[in-house]
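Sorry, I am new here, but would you mind making up a protein's amino acid sequence and the tokens describing how it folds?
***
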Amino acid sequence: DAAVTEVVLLLMAVAVAALVDRAAGRQREARRASREAELLTLFSGSVLRGADLEALLEKVREAYSQRAVTLMRVSGGQERPVASVGTHPPLSVASADTAIEVGDDEFWMLLAGHSLPAADRRVLTLVANKAAGLVRQRELASEASRAEAIEKADELRRSLLSAVSHDLRTPLAAAKAAVSSLRSDEVDFSEGDTAELLATVEESIDQLTALVDNLLDSSRLASGAVRPQVVKVYLEEVVQRALLSIGRGVTGFGGSGLDRVKVDVGEAAAMADPGLLERVLANLIDNALRYAPESLVRVNAGTVGRKVLITVVDEGPGVPRGSEEQLFEPFRRLGDRANRSGVGLGLSVARGFVEAMAGTISATDTPGGGLTVIVELPAPQDD
């Protein structure tokens, strides 16, 4: 009986041990399956969201307790690491403890630390395919971005050639005609006629100078070469300097019509670069005078909280509703009217200067008709 009892107990112990071992194995399989599901979910979502490749490789390294992980690309017989994490990452297929090949032989996922079993390799093959897909997705996005940039550059170049060729020819033709007339021996001009022809030459040169200045400013803005020196400036002084520059022909408009400008900025002050703000206001007032020839142009300012709002208001024809934002694009004329002068860079330059001074600029309808341009700049803080 004792022997039988011992045998029964032994068999029961073996059975229990087998059951425990099987349970432990299933638990390990469950943990492995959970880890694999987590990795696959992570990588699948990352391809859709364009996640960081290094962060994903780090997740693989942690999940499989590896020292380092590398995503390698093989092209023309040359092995090139695309991304790697960890210490002393493998830099070749031969140096890896585990090498997972992607189906097209272009990518390999290399792991350093310890060799992985076949079950892990099966899942990592899927993960490596996801990683390779993420790389290809990034490359396609980068190519699309470059193509878009090239297309925009071509469009900008065409616009530049079209606009500049027109705005160069017009003042050049006027100046040449005036100078040719003055040099002619066939006509005896009166003093008044001579003065008028000389004024035409001067106006044409002012237009060319304004065009060149705006082109240079646009180039500076595009290259990031504008470095504002921001100080406290009183708007009354800046507006008056802007009006003087318009009167001297700096914007190409000439001095006529300045009596239509009404300034009411009080004691308002803003944090801005005096020179850049002068150019901004000169361009805004110049545009209002050009495109609202029968209207008063009002320049107002006031402080709202920590901001200073400057408005340039006209009661001219305005622009179509919804096109206000297009006014600040390069080579865009107000209303796109062919009989208007100017290369269409004034408002674009104004926006670039305002944003360089940590401000904003926008346009809206004037109640009753016209256009209102609003410049918002930081207000000086009380000491």
